[in-house]
Amino acid sequence: MDVNGITGVATAMAEFSANQATGIAVLKKAMDLNAAGALALIEALPDVSQFAANLPPHLGQNINTTA
Length: 67
Hints:
By secondary structure, this protein is mostly helical. The chain is 69% helix and 0% strand.
């Protein structure tokens, strides 16, 4: 292999490494944005304890396994 071939391979490997690092950074940012969106949705849910206080105490005690 001549010197030009070696430098070409080295340049290609460095470019691939930089592209891969950029892709990983973009993926991490997308995951962070998705996590923030999921957290916002969870925080937007109403508190269910206020609804459960108005229900009769016998509800939720039995499971219908034949349906």
